[in-house]
Amino acid sequence: MSSNLSKRSLLKLAGWASLAATAALVGCGKKEEAATPAASEASAAASAAAAVGPLKIAFAYVGPVGDAGWTYAHDQGRLAIEKEFGDKVKTSFVEKVPEGPEAERVIRDLVGQGNILVFGTTFGYMEPMLKVAADNPSVKFEHATGFKTAPNMRTYDSRTYEGAYMAGVIAGSMTKSNTLGVVGSIPIPEVIRNINAFTLGAQSVNPKVKTKVVWVNAWFDPPKETEGAQSLLNQGADVLFQNTDSAAVLQTAEKAGKYAFGWDSDMSKFGPKSHLASAVINWGPYYVKATKDALEGTWQTGGVWWGVKEGAIDLVSVSDAVPAEVKAKVDTVKAGLKDGSFAIWKGPIVAQDGKEMVAKDTVADDKFLGGINFYVKGVEGSIPSGK
């Protein structure tokens, strides 16, 4: 079962919650430094409720479900939970939840409604979720793309850089200008890592490739994404990539008669002529696992990072315009990622200033990947300051 709850509906539902649950809410989303007895009672009450009914699971989404990208992919994962567990679960979601204080208020509301498993699906929810988790020890929290955990909060992510690398292999083969363009969202390691992987994939088949980047400082903003894509085309890019959530970049390329990729989900329908492939995330396997853990009482904190190997990342709907030998190269990379025989981050990897970041024949570990704050050689421009 599922329900799409608006923010206004959440406010009303919070008002109807039980006295114990309501006591866990401290005015305007603020809380005391330590968990209050009322908060503990609310958490215990919610846990007890779950024991006599379906497991209540809630999702906080940063964008709209219809974004065709990041949030759409997460919601497909939510639907996979319903398909797998049927009436053992009851899921709900709130879309377009801003990162920051508003996220804390929404997450508290979700707990107040008796949800025992809560997923926060964007980096900016990390601190708000930590605060709410501290007040509700009986509730399990899952945070996407973050790095901080708690006894009842773990992190999960997908190795999107693997899809970016495979897309790069195609981009490097299809470009005529040897200039690629990337519309970046927010300059955090996750996004910088994807830009670098895309460039490394392109350089693996075309060493002459250069990558230009335009930052829009938003995950989902179609007008800004369109403007950024057009700017890159004006600078000579003839293949576009993105780390943003709408189909605007692909649609802009379609109008200009250039190539582009889908991101997070299959976007081929938005630009049939321009679409080269879509680097997609399948959140279903992880969401099913997390739900199973909660149902069986085996859930534990930690961090999970899945990719091609676990069925979480793929490159799909490859265009007929892509030559057979290029498709074969992508298939080889995909097979190597799946069985562990291929490593994207194997040195030598050099930053744009010439500094060697990963030595020859050395494979970078996840700690290194999690803190990437440099462009590889071939990416032009600079990362916005303060990031």
From TrEMBL:
The keyword NAD does not apply. One of its GO terms (cellular component) is plasma membrane. Keywords: Signal. It holds the Pfam family Bmp. CDD domains: PBP1_BMP-like. InterPro entries: ABC-Purine-Binding, PnrA-like, TAT_signal. Residues 1-23 form the signal peptide. PANTHER family: ABC TRANSPORTER SUBSTRATE-BINDING PROTEIN. This is BMP family ABC transporter substrate-binding protein. The lineage of its organism: Bacteria, Pseudomonadati, Pseudomonadota, Betaproteobacteria, Burkholderiales.
